[in-house]
Fold these 3 entries.
Entry 1:
Amino acid sequence: MNIIQMKCAVGIAKAGSINKAADVLLIAQPNLSKTIRELEDELGIKIFLRSSRGMSLTPEGEEFIGYAKKILKQIEDVEKLYKDGGQVKHSFAISAPRASYISDAFANFTKHISEEAVELVYNETNSMRAIDNIVNRDYNLGIIRYAECYERYFSKLLEDKELVGTPIVRFQYVLVMNKNSSLAKKEQVLLSDLAHYTEIAHADPYVPSLPISVVKKQELTNYSENTIFVYERGSQFDLLSLNPNTYMWVSPIPQRVLDNCGLVQRECPESSRVYKDVLVYKKNYRFSRLDRLFVEFIEQSKAII
């Protein structure tokens, strides 16, 4: 196995087809196909499943591509260091649910980084993409969120993907709304109080092995007549800040964020579902200094939950 073979495999995985990868890599399609066949024969595994729709990774292929990307990245770093006389750039990438206590931890984390050259990636997304970013992309860490009733589904998925899940916190959702909303005048909000308000919700819940239609029915509430689906947390807060007739189910939010956005949060005694946030990473992964520092700030920030 050599570097060229790894680059070819990574290129095909990214492009999704031999023809597209050949155009990007500037290699003739027959030569590229031959290179992958030789690599698969040498390793004794099937890296790709071939079909009329293109090339998709096998489970063994996903594992190989993950290793190949890291090796190619290390080679790139060494070349920059010794050929260009440059400094190796430290990297940190994490996927997380759309949660203010986590983004608060990340913001504080960025203020305490001493490396001169560093590249940070913070990706707010659902649990499926957080896991995929670890398995198939250059993310070492992820935080996934799920209702505790789905524990066995996620435990099985992490086991199948050879990932480790370390619990961060258990909590129940609270309601957040504009400080001028009539809901904000209540110490506790009942589900019946929500009927004539507009709910802001995430539209991409995910539970492994369950159809999305079933997950949406269980995870998306129907207490309100109107719903606005928004994927991006900044826009969610804009809606809440500007429209006193909206509300959203969230994990508890730091008071600083509530004050900045003109929001308040209230408990709902009738909402009993328990959720978990879990830190996810590959088995045998050794945490970097940046990883450990981020986890320290998560531990501090979770005190509000």
Entry 2:
Amino acid sequence: MRFFDRLLTVIITATLTSAAWIIVGGGWSPQRQTAQTDRIVSEAAAPVGRSQGSRFMPVPGTWSIPVQGVAAADLVDTFDDRRGDDEERTHEALDIMAPRGTPVLAATDGLVEKLFTSRAGGLTIYTRGADGRTLLYYAHLQSYAPGLAEGQQVRTGQVLGSVGSTGNADAGSPHLHFAILRTSPGAEWWEPARAINPFPVLTGQ
């Protein structure tokens, strides 16, 4: 009986191995299966948005306008505006006008990636969306929210800071400079990334 038990075990093992070999397209590839599984899990756990061709499609209900009291009808699309002394560059962001001190809100769930002061952006915040590929940039702030820190989880609508005119913003026109950047999960906040127009994302157009 022991001989037949061992023989049966060998037959079952061989059958399962052959089936697995056929399923993966002619070769056993645990690495390929793992990579595919990781991709599926990553996409399933990414509520921030998705790409459709060259357009970034936000998941409904996961985004809000990042300045308190501002409605979609109040927004003006400044993404393609020219900037610089000789207008040599494209804005690639949305300027949301509001009185100085108006609360700046998290546009979507994420993680505070970097609190940074720069010559151009003044007091800024970078957050990374839940998908790991979306960076949000908030600039020209007057102040940070009390207790805000790098590595902190933030929720949609949470106060991050307040509208100001730090950096190279016009002191008489306080506003939030808001940008959406698409990158890779392993990329740092300062690495080159593809700018996405926030206007259709925030207005649903």
Entry 3:
Amino acid sequence: MAVFSNQATITYNGNTANSNIAYGEILDALAVSKTPIESGYTPGETVTYVVNLTNTGTTPLTGVTLTDNLGGYDFAGTTVYPLSYNANSIKYFVNGVLQSTPTVVQGPPMSITGLSIPAKGNAVLVYQATVTSFAPSTLGSTIVNTVTATGTGINTPVTASSTVAVNSNASITVNKSISPTQVTDNQQVTYTFIIQNSGNTALEATGDTVITDTFNPILSNISAVFNSTPLGVNTDYTYDTATGLFQTLAGRITVPAATVTQNPTTGEYTVTPGVSTLVITGTI
């Protein structure tokens, strides 16, 4: 909305008099809101946005352009974008009826042109964006995303912003190796489990993390070491010598959260996984 003012002047017999200043206000006929469907984001995954454009006026709005800044922010003298529009993901509804796909310039920033909003009606845009390597992933991080509507009949650009916070999660992978790879009966072998966490949340001792493995062939005289600390049978793990079933007790396996660093030149974030190691040795 915009406030305007006006003042008149009268001149008479060489004199000048000014009127009072009259103020008025131009009300925006267009209201815009933007809402993410997902409750949070994870780098590399998708966020779905719903943009609602409501025309409260008595005249249709045509030729409207909607620009999405894809969360762009300034970094080292340039703009980097934590979101990337997913091509062909857009759906466009007018008063609830699906319309032909509008023209989209992927950007960044992304823009949608040729939109129409009927008088006393609304248009809804639904589209998706992928979270890029420029999005922070440490706990408490957010992406602030803003759309701007412009066009004939819109006196001043109308904006709407939405904020989505990073998800709190652990992302675990396990790599298992055996040494030596060629063995004979009654020979000792070592299994090494490298456990990596690419998420922003550590696996804590208070958690329910358990590693289970059934050794075939069955091992005897086993020992287990976690992060260089020996584990105790029945206090830290159980082992069934009849079936070869090995299982840690809940909470004995911990893995630190990943470390996140931002490149000081490009602004991209790099994730270095947290790592823990479980080593089990036994005789075949």
